[in-house]
Amino acid sequence: MDYFLITTSLLKIVGMLVVVILPMVSYSVYAERRVSAFMQDRLGPNRVGPAGLFQPIADIFKLLLKEDFSPRHVNTFYYWLAPCLALVPAIITIAVVPFGSTLLGVPMVIADINVGILYVFAIASLGVYGIVLAGWASNSKYPFLGGVRSSSQMISYELSLGLAVIPVFLLVGNLRLTSVVRYQIEHGWMIAPFIGDWMNLGKWLLAIPMIISFVVFTIAVFAETNRLPFDLPEAEQELAGGYHTEYSSMKFALFFLGEYAAMISGSAVIVTLFLGGWHFPGIPDGSHGWIFGLINIAVFFAKVAALIFVFMWVRWTLPRFRYDQLMRLGWLFFFEIALVNIFLVAIIVAYFRF
Amino acid sequence: MAITVARPKLNWRERMYLPAIAAGMAITIKHFKNMILGRTKVTMQYPEEKWDSSMPEHYRGAPALVRDTDGRVRCVACQLCEFICPPRAIKIVAGEIPSTDRFAKVEKYPEEFDIDMVRCIFCGMCEEVCPEQAIFLRKDYAITGFTRDEMVHHKEKLLEIGGVMHGVVLKWNEKK
Q1: What is the pTM of this model?
Q2: Is the ipTM of this complex over 0.95?
């Protein structure tokens, strides 16, 4: 038995979950409320604690103390299963994402498996079950419509999601997410491969399809995490809240937290694939001292936070798509763009021999 | 009859939507930035900041009884306000002023004067109808209580809100 591996893995799992992900989820709810308020010339929650910073704690207490009401007509087993299925996949996606270099010689990734990105897609697709089951088990028409919408939306956008990352792996050569980061440290970030190699025409050409691929992937992640402008499953105005209409108290909160957890893990994957992971030019990795290991982790989460801000920024700017527009966009534009993009990258890679 | 509105023809640049999206994002970030820098001043932080200083003269807040400069409660318990009050919030019990009093010729005074602030609609009719200039609407607006009984303003409370009124006609002076 490898006690060292087991202990460090457990420490990383617990530390990641309790110290980073869960507070980040609850504080991204707070941040969402503040950011949206600022964008609309309001103030947002600013009463509980300094600048409203204890608001998430108050919210959680409120949700825990509320009556957990379940309607009589629901399918009880699936009704209880759905909130868990909404939250769990969103959180366990983080397992393969390298969130730092090394800290005291321990690699800062929970599971460095060689099918990294496939694992991410496999688990992220499980997120749809939470929503579909919630819609189905609620036994009511609006949640049902929300569930149906969600499943078709996810299936449509998973295609472009998968196709958009292929260029990255054409360059890297294997599916391990740590090697994606390693590649980006050596050859420049995926969205700016010309950094450090300014005179190389091929790298400049490569930047174009990589940026397209980044944009397509980011938009597909928006759709996967049900964020506006693609939040059709829960469209408040049309579906009265969508799949979580019949839920209350902590079960409702789990859906809510699941959405934010999915947003965080989605941002983490984007950062890892396109924005250099924990790497920042000029900062050495963790083998030069534990302080650099910590800085690398901080850089990673700063990037994630910046992306989450972009998520919120987009949400409070753009209106929701109509359903046919959403499908048209997914099948007729992003799918084709991503497909053509693969060929572009393949040609550039073959011609310039990266 | 249904009217079909012609959809505008979009050129290729508009059909890409990207410039419009970028413009929208620029607008929201501008608002965000101005808010962060404190340039936008819209919200008033209520219990700390109040309108009180900039309230207009004609503001109709809580009705109150006033004393004149002689210290006399100006109300003579004529009960006109009780009759005019649309939600019937006012209740007056009249009493007689003893003949030894300095203002004995006024004859009546309110023994009890209750305004139920749960019912009051701040219409100001009581102020308008009062022949004695005894009841005025003041600028108090935050009237709260935990029970309905607490929301009833008795005579003492009304006089406390009202205070002394200067510059009103002193028609019950001894000289007149």
Answers
A1: 0.79
A2: no
